[in-house]
Specification:
103 residues; mainly beta; Tumour Suppressor Smad4; six-stranded antiparallel sheet; five-stranded mixed sheet; globular
């Protein structure tokens, strides 16, 4: 039996200004913002230092939580960390990201 290929959790930028168009989530913490420590760097004068953050849990699931902004997942604003599933659309601080698993 051949081993399964590892699927890479990825954020695709669908709308908005960032430094790249695609981000592979390889760390336990992914920060979205203008901060020098941010993984997903926002552009623009009024971009928050930390708009939101995505954490990877021990079971390799990914959760998005708020920071300086309240993100929405599939059009619904979140009030607590929310689990991301493949195909989910995240909006925060003027950008739209799609969460997918890539081969």
């Amino acid at each position: 039996m051949a081993p399964g290929r590892l699927k890479l959790p990825t954020l695709l930028v669908r709308k908005g200004k960032t430094d790249r168009k695609e981000y592979t989530l390889s760390d336990k913490l992914t920060v979205i913002g203008k901060s020098a420590l941010a993984t997903i760097k926002l552009k623009g004068w009024f971009a928050p230092k930390v708009a939101a953050q995505i954490t990877r849990r021990e079971d390799n699931s990914f959760y998005i939580g708020m920071a300086e902004r309240v993100p929405s997942v599939n059009g619904t604003a979140i009030s607590q960390p929310s689990k991301l599933s493949s195909g989910d659309v995240v909006e925060v601080a003027g950008i739209v990201l799609e969460f997918v698993y890539r081969d």
